């Protein structure tokens, strides 16, 4: 009997099932080791705000011009709506499997398995990208500090780059393996550094822009916040896709819910705090950078294609001076490194939950007896990330770029399914009060529809070989082939697991029963 048929009575028994789920949440993780602040810091760190800004400001301006702040707000809206869905589901079922566990309960094992796969593969792609970015900024920073172009050029040496990247992955895996205590301590320092440097950059950029001595600077206008002023719908959707990517990762604070004080409420509150901090940082930085540099396509202009992939590298010295400008390089490196470490949290805990509920091989359910972390799942995620990046780097630079472009498809895929799962799970409670109708039904459905629309539009755009690196397979865009191909790999693996673990796919496991756990060797 499927989970869906067992719950035909609707959401009226959703919270009751949630209490069972909470009881089933004892997977051996370190409970009550993270508070509200620590959980919010993990969510902010996973998003990597400084890295996102330096790599996205330029491309977004290239698409929407001075409407960049409006597009950031537009990207924030569906994420906020989905965050409400995560909060309500976490109250009922505080399980580290998050999207996987919730969608299994709402829609059954098959949909839930694919939702979990979407989260896992998206995270592996992001981890490999973050490791590459951390490596690039590591050598760029060393070059700045030593004044040696040869040192900075090591980033272009493929063997040296990949070796350093693997070292970063190994270090991040080791920190995550040691559990939440080690993770939390590192993140306080790295996130604090990022936000402090951003505050200095914003302040100095605004002061210099208002002085009137800069030829490219522009005066602030409230029309920058008007999304309807974007020149075309195609440009708006392209900018929106970039904006959604900038907010991805806040749900990491939900995946550590079993290790958080007040697991049913604190993670949801932390997610909303992280979202507010992120949108505030993005808007202030976007406005300050735009006022200082303008949106021109030459010189320091944010629309300059030669600096679009790393805006802060171009603006660091002019805005902050040589001495303080180095801090901006340090902040980008810290942002990528911090996100690299915390991004292991959601993938490891999702794999742990899938294994504990027999949706993956039982060995991944091993929890380290001392650190009380998903040791086997964390190491597996690190190995998968390292192999993925090394193979893609030596195979083709275009393939690596196109894999990153396919990331947006995965993000919209599992976020939208989770949002719809919320409305379906609580369907019997939507008429109980206005609050339930809005936060458990209307808002999640709207967020899911918006992300589903972006998913479909992205899928359509990916078919064109011009999307991404410009390469193609049999006339079809490589990004489309990679994105759809990775989802189909998930289908194949699901069929294999259905053969190996038929009980889960018959709906006999994830029904509130305590999962089978294995102690770490």
From TrEMBL:
<feature type="transmembrane region" description="Helical">
    <location>
        <begin position="373"/>
        <end position="392"/>
    </location>
</feature>
<feature type="transmembrane region" description="Helical">
    <location>
        <begin position="115"/>
        <end position="140"/>
    </location>
</feature>
<feature type="transmembrane region" description="Helical">
    <location>
        <begin position="472"/>
        <end position="496"/>
    </location>
</feature>
<dbReference type="InterPro" id="IPR050367">
    <property type="entry name" value="APC_superfamily"/>
</dbReference>
<keyword id="KW-0472">Membrane</keyword>
<dbReference type="GO" id="GO:0022857">
    <property type="term" value="F:transmembrane transporter activity"/>
</dbReference>
<dbReference type="Pfam" id="PF13520">
    <property type="entry name" value="AA_permease_2"/>
</dbReference>
<feature type="transmembrane region" description="Helical">
    <location>
        <begin position="34"/>
        <end position="58"/>
    </location>
</feature>
<protein>
    <submittedName>
        <fullName>Amino acid transporter</fullName>
    </submittedName>
</protein>
<keyword id="KW-1133">Transmembrane helix</keyword>
<dbReference type="GO" id="GO:0005886">
    <property type="term" value="C:plasma membrane"/>
</dbReference>
<keyword id="KW-0812">Transmembrane</keyword>
<feature type="transmembrane region" description="Helical">
    <location>
        <begin position="228"/>
        <end position="250"/>
    </location>
</feature>
<feature type="transmembrane region" description="Helical">
    <location>
        <begin position="271"/>
        <end position="293"/>
    </location>
</feature>
<feature type="transmembrane region" description="Helical">
    <location>
        <begin position="404"/>
        <end position="426"/>
    </location>
</feature>
<feature type="transmembrane region" description="Helical">
    <location>
        <begin position="160"/>
        <end position="177"/>
    </location>
</feature>
<feature type="transmembrane region" description="Helical">
    <location>
        <begin position="326"/>
        <end position="352"/>
    </location>
</feature>
<feature type="region of interest" description="Disordered">
    <location>
        <begin position="1"/>
        <end position="25"/>
    </location>
</feature>
<feature type="transmembrane region" description="Helical">
    <location>
        <begin position="64"/>
        <end position="86"/>
    </location>
</feature>
<dbReference type="InterPro" id="IPR002293">
    <property type="entry name" value="AA/rel_permease1"/>
</dbReference>
<keyword id="KW-1003">Cell membrane</keyword>
<feature type="transmembrane region" description="Helical">
    <location>
        <begin position="189"/>
        <end position="208"/>
    </location>
</feature>
<feature type="transmembrane region" description="Helical">
    <location>
        <begin position="438"/>
        <end position="460"/>
    </location>
</feature>
